[in-house]
Amino acid sequence: MKSIQLILLVIFTFQSNAQILDFETVDFKKADRIALSYNDEDLSNLSDLSYKLTENLDTDVERFRAIFRWVCDNIANDYSLYLKNKHKRERFKDDSIKFTNWNNDFRKTLFKKLRKRKKTICTGYAYLVKELAEFADLECEIIQGYGRVSTTDIENLTLPNHSWNAVKLNGKWYLCDPTWASGIPNPETNRFAFKYNDGFFLAEPELFAVNHFPVEAKWWLLDVDMPTFKDFLAAPVIYGKAYETLSLHTQPKKMHHKIKTDEHLDFEYKLKALVKPEAIHFVIDSGDHSWKTKPTSVTLESDVLKLKHQFKSTGFYDVHLYIEDALIATYTVDVEK
Predict the structure, then answer these.
(1) Which of 31, 88, 235, 236 has the fewest Cβ atoms surrounding its Cβ within 10 A?
(2) Which region, left, alpha or beta, applies to residue 331 given φ > 0 means left and ψ of -120 to 50 means alpha?
(3) pLDDT (tens digit, 9 = 90+) per residue, 171-190?
């Protein structure tokens, strides 16, 4: 019995780890071209839109790609609506009747705005991807959970605040986040700019887990080392470019660190593509000023990047990692004597 369990565990582990390579040979240019050719389509007939996006594609993954890409390129993120919903949900969280009534009323507003103005928040993105996928006979689910970005107030993160999707392709489930793949809203102006991020399409589950925490544990799509909510809140901040640059964020596991001046802080990542050591740098902010610096040491072993950095002065620092001038992750370091 133990032997059978071990074999099944090995098989499942292999499948999980192999996800990022499953569609390595698939060329998505045709699917992307079809998605872009229907930019003027509205949402009055979702079954018709799904058919137009998928009828001339041969594989399920290409059909899902056309749907995902269309949603990301045509639906704007309504940051003002997100803030309004966040405020009301927090206000009513201790009153179940008002909370339920608000959710029901808000859902009507959300879908009306989505269909008429092609603007929404994460719930609308996930809903639309699911609907279009199911019209194409693709099994797709909406995943509810918690999402972390650089502006998230983790001290008050008590309610699920994000939605994304899981899609079943060739008998396996894959994760994607159409909201974060579509572009970036400016939290100061509330203005949204489309900028597709391919890193959130069929994302590597272990990287996805750094800033996504599903309510239902089965949607981790991880076989071991599922984070606790405490682990999730303590994790580093990673940015959209991390999904385009990394396949894995190995260490450090936490955002906040306390070290001595004679100690090194270690960093390790698995890269999607090789980079030159000179393309890697930190921007360190002491609160009074910031400066650009190279890591104390850089080691590249195949696709594994290892960094070490020593802080020569005591103080509290925000440490931002850049690769090819793209912001990848942020950590804090409290350096003592």
Answers:
(1) 88
(2) beta
(3) 999 999 999 999 987 767 77
